[in-house]
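Sharing a chain and its predicted structure for anyone who wants a worked example. Both blocks are below, sequence first, tokens second.
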Amino acid sequence: MFWGRDYLQGAPIHTHLQNIKQVSANSSLLAEHQAQQIKSLLTHAVQTTDYYKNYDGYGRIEDFPVVNKNIIRESFEQFESKIFKGQKLRLVQTSGSTGTPFQIFQNTSKRQRVLAEVIYFNSLVGYHVGTRYAFVVAAGSIHRENAVSRFIKNKVEFSLNTLDFASSEEQRLTLLKDKKIEILIGNPSVINDLARHVIAQGDTPEDFGVKGVLCISEPLYPNMRDTIRTAFNCPVLSRYSNEECGVLAYECPTSNKFHLNTASYFFENA
């Protein structure tokens, strides 16, 4: 259903996905891709925004000013592209977990790129579109999706109160019963507590259908990884992403070291 709809729309997500795969695997292609994207971005910024309009003729990203969230928030309209004014855009908001609340708009192409990133990097733990997965978070930390949305995504929601035996036991029994749940995605601290619970109940990895665990939103500490691996005997990886941008970094399955998502972003060291 997902890929069929994408195909009927011209396969934009599939195209982004193939691009991410290709440039991530080829350093020469990556350099060429980054150069093209930076040139296109700078041209777009100069020609369509008030903030950068006086930088016409500057060809290097080093010639442009360094900005932060505060500057963008205080002069938001100057950063808006004239091309997208009046168009239907997706508002993305962050609560400011790093200290600075922020909101931006994403156009359709950006949203499609983010989806392609998620699909590609989730595949490192065995997730593919349509794979049944459980989204594991602390109780009260998310708003539940409606049943239709969960059905379309083949998603189960685990909301755990880790101090409550009954809460952990409920999710354990769900995993024991529904062995089609192959992937766990969520907060490592909560998944770790669930793993400790199933170990304490005497379960073994063979009792579950879990084939991969992807940790988000929090650091994945070595002791957590070891506990989760003991419980489910599968790859356990971490991903760093945010609402404004998408997937910024991902953990390599062979080295457990983080790699930057250079297929979509250009990183500079301050």
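Comments welcome. The chain has a mean pLDDT of 88.
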